[in-house]
């Protein structure tokens, strides 16, 4: 009897790594332990990560020595990438990578230093907001610089009846420019926008309560950064309702605070969460690379 031995190289799609996915002691999030994103990621491992991302909404990958090219390639496995309207802060040679940084060199900011200053879901001001974002730590401050995440499924599940009735079936307007002037007045990171940039961020309308396209779960989808009004309500009523929704969305028991460690890569689901940069002391340097994956039009 003869045995046939395959001499072919193992295929990248068959690669398998040994890793664990451990839920965090928080209302969202899981840590992926033992996976090396510099190595090929086979189909089965990718499927596990995809499932975990849907279940936990934030995946924390520790100690990832990946290059921007590897971050881009991993991000693209989940969908096409979006290019931020502030292309001034793209990583040179990689328009898909937004530099999030408070560092100023030779009088020039190297990245967007006040990204995440207000609670938001990335690119909710686009017709197709972001599915998810990946943030890879490059340089971290000795203190501060945490990122907070709020679980918008829990926000919807626990929304008091009178607020549910007030928002069900309604849409809200989102615009990139909602608080741009306010941010510009106090930071060096908000350049004047060109006509072409303004044309890229026309206001859009999205349902106040969206359905996650992959899990079917409902989530509140309004944010203090980008949502300007509830369509069809008088201005004062709309503002009062939005304030109630914003306050409810970020209740302490819906939050996870990510305290960054060197080489962390964090991947979150913008369809399920909002996030906030908690702030870095001015004298400390912080730099991260962000990729943003395009999602579906919310329904
Ligand atoms: C962001 O909003 O994408 C930035 C979050 C952060 O810097 O912590």
List keywords for this structure.
Double-stranded beta-helix, eight-stranded mixed beta sheet, three-stranded antiparallel beta sheet, 18 strands, 21% helix, binds succinic acid
Would you write up a description of this structure?
The protein is of the alpha+beta class and 299 residues long. It has a single domain, classed as Double-stranded beta-helix. It has seven helices and 18 strands. Strands 1-2-3-16-8-18-5-4 form an eight-stranded mixed sheet, covered by helices on one side. Strands 15-9-17 form a three-stranded antiparallel sheet. It has a three-stranded antiparallel sheet with strand order 11-10-14. The chain is globular. The protein starts with 19 loop residues before the first strand and ends in a 5-residue tail after the last strand. Succinic acid binds next to strand 17.
- Overall shape: globular
Mean pLDDT: 95
Percent strand equals 25-35%
CATH superfamily: Clavaminate synthase-like
CATH topology: Double-stranded beta-helix
Based on the structure given, which CATH architecture is correct?
4-Layer Sandwich
* Element order: H for helix, E for strand: EEHEHEEEEEEHHEHHEEEEHEEEE
């Amino acid at each position: 009897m003869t045995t046939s031995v395959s001499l072919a190289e193992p295929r990248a799609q068959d690669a398998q790594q040994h890793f664990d996915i451990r839920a965090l002691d928080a209302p969202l999030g899981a840590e992926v332990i033992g996976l090396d994103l510099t190595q090929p990621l086979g189909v089965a491992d990718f499927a596990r990560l995809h499932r975990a991302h849907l279940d936990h909404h934030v995946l924390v990958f520790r100690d990832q020595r990946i290059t921007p090219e590897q971050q881009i390639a991993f991000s693209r496995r989940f969908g096409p990438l979006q290019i931020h309207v502030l292309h001034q802060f793209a990583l040179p040679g990689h328009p898909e990578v937004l530099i999030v940084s408070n560092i100023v060199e030779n009088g020039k900011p190297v990245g967007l230093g006040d990204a995440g200053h207000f609670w938001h879901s990335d690119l909710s001001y686009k017709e197709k907001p972001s599915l998810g974002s990946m943030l890879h730590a490059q340089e971290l401050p000795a203190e501060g610089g945490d990122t907070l995440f709020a679980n918008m499924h829990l926000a919807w599940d626990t929304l008091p009846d009178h607020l549910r009735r007030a928002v069900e079936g309604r849409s809200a307007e989102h615009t990139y420019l909602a608080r741009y002037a306010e941010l510009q007045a106090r930071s060096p990171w908000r350049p004047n926008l060109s006509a072409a940039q303004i044309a890229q961020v026309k206001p859009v309308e999205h349902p106040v309560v969206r359905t996650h396209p992959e899990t079917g779960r409902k989530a509140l989808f309004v944010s203090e950064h980008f949502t300007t009004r509830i369509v069809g309500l008088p201005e004062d009523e709309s503002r009062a309702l939005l304030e109630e929704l914003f306050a409810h969305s970020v209740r302490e028991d819906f939050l996870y605070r990510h305290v960054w460690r060197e080489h962390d890569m964090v991947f979150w689901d913008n369809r399920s969460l909002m996030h906030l940069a908690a702030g870095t002391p001015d004298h400390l340097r912080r730099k991260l690379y962000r990729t943003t994956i395009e999602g579906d039009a919310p329904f």
